[in-house]
Write the structure tokens for this entry.
Amino acid sequence: MKKKGPFFELAKGIVKENPVLVLVLGMCPTLAVTTSAKNGIAMGIAATAVLIGSNSVISLIRKFVPDEVRIPIFIVVIASFVTVIQLVMNAYFYELFKVLGLFIPLIVVNCIILGRAEAFASKNNVFLSILDGIGMGIGFTLTLFFLGAFREILGSGTVLGFNILGESYSKNPMLIMILPPGGFLMLGLMMAFVKVFTEKRK
Amino acid sequence: MIFLLIFISAALVNNFVLSRFLGICPFLGVSKKLDSAVGMGIAVIFVMVLAVSVTWPLQHYILNPLGLAYLQTITFILIIASLVQLVEMILKKNVPALYHSLGIYLPLITTNCAILGIAIDAILKKYSLAASLVYALGAGIGFTLALVIMAGIRERLETADTPAPFKGTPINLILASLLSIAFMGFSALVTV
């Protein structure tokens, strides 16, 4: 693989290698928590924090970890960071903790995090790994925010709690968008849109 | 009776894939061929029941009495990872054909959120051990059902004329959306 500058490692996660829309990783939290824009941001930030932490630690220990047992070790590192986030959220953001519920411990099995550990942090130095974590995290958070915002606008007429489409819409919204089928549908449409956009630029 | 309700609720009403969004990665990844979908489904049912039968006693007899409940995430994921390794070894030895068709997706069961999800959810729901096992069985069968239906439709979709931007994952997500609407028909069938 060609060596690229630090800026590239930071920026690639946002559009070019967007973890959700292009690499199709981490679908479960993406679909499950994006019933509103706020939940999407919260999930994105929690996952980003874990990703930055795990990427930096895994990059630090990459020379001492025997190749055969690297996956279990990576998982333990990730699980430790998730436990930290879980405790912090329980203490300081209890409302969000209750809403996201099951999906906070499930950050452990978010394919993005193990994927980046395996594909990037285990091969690169700490500085680049942290940048990679930040970039991927921003890409993930932005995707979750937009998906959550679109679903929230159509499903309840609001964004982050502000009414956008007026009272009459809020009384009779497209409820299906904040129900499970809407999540699949909206993500499918978003992916198709991104594909059109990126293919035109080629 | 309560077991039957839990089973139906987990398999149909609150289908793990289509209404709770757990296990989407294998749902999209392994649903290309009907054979491997069935194999993956069976592997997931097996690992789910096995995982719950280990994690439930662990939580109630070791972590809770010692006040170590915060270690739940770490211990559960380690147990699931070793169980998956075990299933992989058994399959490799006894059913090599299935082992090869599942390919890279078998190790990925470890990062299948449905498995960790069911282990934690059974604890959160405060089910007894027997109820948790029924819950795991129902959820696994629900997962397999969704996966097999999806694979069946996708085999036909291969030959269909899909608009270029929707080729691949987007059309599959829209397909999943329609399936999810169909499964919404089960809602309010039972409430547990």
Observations:
- The radius of gyration of chain B is 17 Å.
- Chain B has a mean pLDDT of 85.
- Chain B has eight helices and no strands.
- The interface with chain A takes residues 18-25, 28, 70-74, 77-78, 81, 107-108, 110-113, 115-117, 120-121, 124, 165-166, 169-174, 176-178, 180-181, 184 of chain B (CB under 8 Å).
